[in-house]
Amino acid sequence: MTHPLTLPRPPGTARLAAPLLLLLAVACAGALLLACTNGSVPLSLADLWHAARGNGSELANTLLTLRLERALTACATGATLALAGLLMQSLLRNPLADPYVMGVSGGASVGALLALWLGLAAWQTDIAAVIGALALSALLFTLARRDFSRASGTVLLLLTGVLLSTACGALVSLLLTIAPDSQLRGMVFWLIGDLSGTPLRPWPWLVLVPAALLAWWQAPAINLLAMHGDHAITLGVPVGRLRRLLLLLAALLTATAVSQGGSIGFVGLMVPHACRLLAGPNLRTLIPSCVLSGATLLVAADTLARCVVAPMQLPVGVLTALLGVPVLFWQLHRTRRRMN
Q1: Is 193 or 303 the better-scoring residue by pLDDT?
Q2: Domain total for the chain?
Q3: Summary mean pLDDT of the chain
Q4: What is the pTM assigned to this prediction?
Q5: What is the pLDDT of residues 62-79, one digit of tens each?
Q6: Nearest-angstrom CA–CA distance, 300 and 279
Q7: Which helix (H) or strand (E) holds 269?
Q8: Residue 166: which CATH number?
Q9: Is the preceding peptide bond at 311 cis, omega within 30 degrees of 0?
Q10: What is the DSSP string of 152-198?
């Protein structure tokens, strides 16, 4: 039976890869442009052009700087979450896997919230998120490693991830209960997923670019792993080492995204599915497609969160969850039909 992650590629997909990536790049640039021009105070294209050249009004220059920094932060966060979801689905051979559903995002949230509760610096919060994500990923890998090649592995892995996510949710509730009132509002907004006030930092890009390049370089081996599971070792794939690499990359990407924008769910679930329908199962095309699509989705969602009830701003995690829940139900329905 054909695995969900390795459905036959539609005819002509290889020829369409370059035009598709170009179209996604244009869409990402368009989302960044809309993010810079829209808000409680809209900017015209002329104002934006003058501000970009440095001879605009003081208001236009300030708005462009603030909006561009936030849009680039959303761009890096969305691309990171989408790539983490793609790698986790390939690792677990589970079409429902993503950092949010499988609990890895919860582990990063526990680490980051604990650092926030202790009043640690931003770089210490990043390290705490990485430790939490790696610890949760290692636990998930240890509990579920025997189920990778079983027919019932999808259900068992999903249940394991849900249980770990529930445990992390309990720890998060404990931290929110004992947090002082002065920290509570910021922790709640961060937990929902909020990019307001998040500074533009090089750290997410320094993680995203090498991780994407390394995953792209290993794409042929990952394709075989997703297709054959443990049997890929007979084709020369170092299965154990590759799984550890994918686990490390997925956890590091998740921790980076969580420390940057909080717990933003379902991006890692929606984007790989959409890209797989457009680009086929080959990770050489899927990886750049997911990076560009994830960036575009989160920039557009964050722009909508800023504008829909302006001047108030909604947490972007609310919008991604509202989009992601129907996608999850649809995928569950497809999985049930396939099992029947």
Answers
A1: 303
A2: 1
A3: 81
A4: 0.84
A5: 888 888 899 999 999 999
A6: 21
A7: helix 267-279
A8: 1.10.3470.10
A9: yes
A10: THHHHHHHHHHHHHHHHHHHHHHHHHHS-HHHHHHHHHHHH---TTP
